[in-house]
Fold these 2 entries.
Entry 1:
Amino acid sequence: MNSKKYSGVLPAFYACYDGEGRVSPEGVRALTRYLIGKGVNGLYVGGSSGECIYQSVEERKLTLENVMAEAKGKVTIIAHVACNNTADSCELAAHAERLGVDAIASIPPIYFHLPPYSIAEYWNDISAAAPNTDFIIYNIPQLAGVALNVPLLQEMKKNPRVIGVKNSSMPTQDIQMWKDEGVIVFNGPDEQFISGLAMGADGGIGGTYAAMPELFLKVYALFQEGKMDQARQIQNEICRIIYKLCSTHGNMYAAIKAILAKRGVDCGSVRKPLTALADSDRAIVDACAAQIDAAIAQFCK
């Protein structure tokens, strides 16, 4: 297990659409180049930020194919492959392995609250479809409706491909529990990136990283250097920016994509039922972009 490969700052990749709302290969490639140019350690493709539950299997394949065309061999690529049925999830897993991703990831099945043995079977079936690829459990109980626990993780560790957890539950205590089981852990909630690192997370995967990768990279670097006061100062400013991003009428990802458009990266809008940016949101987007620029100028010299 290459823990260095699974560390650092990995932005969750955004869905990229053209003006007609179709997946844009050009947009996917542009965002990939942009983030690699910022020095991120990897990309997490096809997760919540990628609007995965609103995309078809073919659209998710198209996105990953274009990410890999730009990024393969340059940064770590983790492909989230879960669908709300096993067959489609296995199809995406096999496709990801053929493309040469570093790892696949999966949330548990959603809607029906399945018992742990059913969840384990679902994950193991997905892993079996990509037998040469590392597997990461995505724990996000507030959205999935079911939480990872130690007995379930211990059961999954019987599968030698299971190497880690992307932990998006809010209690940082969970990170310590998973680390005690000897797996790699990524912090999920962006607002507590530094807290997750302090609890032992190897790195972070987050939905706002791509809006301000410089700030998250600086927090990670300062943490590694033991400069906690400086790292905390930047984390606090990141939190203020996130609160502002969440204050729009439109979906947060619509606001983030508008900020990226200001950087010359066109990701389009969001897909319904997510709400697109409202005209009244433009001032908030401008304020967030200015706040990010000021923080980069202050902390990332």
Entry 2:
Amino acid sequence: MPLVTSKELFQKAYKGGYAIGAFNVNNMEIIQGIFEAAIEEKSPLIIQVSSGARKYARHEYLIHLIQASMEMAEASGVSIPVVLHLDHGDDFDICKKCIDGGFSSVMIDASKHPLQENIRITREVVEYAHSKGVTVEAELGKLAGVEDEVNVSAKDATYTDPQEAKEFVDKSGCDSLAIAIGTSHGAYKFKGEPKLAFDRLQQIQDLLPNFPLVLHGASSVPQDLTDICNKYGGAIPGSRGVPEEMIAQAAKTGVCKINVDTDLRIALTGQIRKAFFENPAEFDPRKYLGPARDAIREVVKRKMRIMGCSGKA
């Protein structure tokens, strides 16, 4: 079962009024948990690898772990379309390495540059990627927060300008666009009442009809997950994510891809902390990574149902 690009999946998602979950991976247990969820939910799947994940786990290991998971899915009798996507590639070189290394989709994030420079860099990646049959996601606007190499302060965050979004897509040729409407990276997304700029999302939709949009920093940071983490020695009090009802609303209004990373990290860490707390003599990795993998599976299933992509494989 070969990897697919995002193009056809996004067309179906846009018409069907749902989004596809894009889940970041760093090790075997996270990959296994995500695929187990996709098989149970019969959902299309976007597996994301950041530049930090490539450095930590190595490109070659991740590729083979994902390929093995796809083979296991096929053996189960469930045909799951899988996109392997580079998350937040910050220059042409890393995008090229991933394209040449077997990824079916890449993100070039040149959002730190002025508009015309962002367009130029994105266009360069698009031309190379399309020549290899690979799709490209770009970003316009700046999300606050920290994730791997991405670090933007709240004062430097900017919402996506709808008119600039139209110009950017027309000139860059990108296949999807990550927009900033109030989400942010990390576990602390809102100090006050959570709010997303759905009016801005609609303006962008009006100018770019039928064009797939992407939400980064869209973890919900569910209270039940943070409670487990904090109960067993964690220190993430007061964390707040994007409410699940807002995620569901975005998925119905032209957002075709929704990124999830923080929720996976919290779920995994909480179960490991719990295992160590309850049995401090334990040193068998299988005894704490197994429950962590199960927690990943349940979080991903929950996300797929909220986004509406369950049953859409």
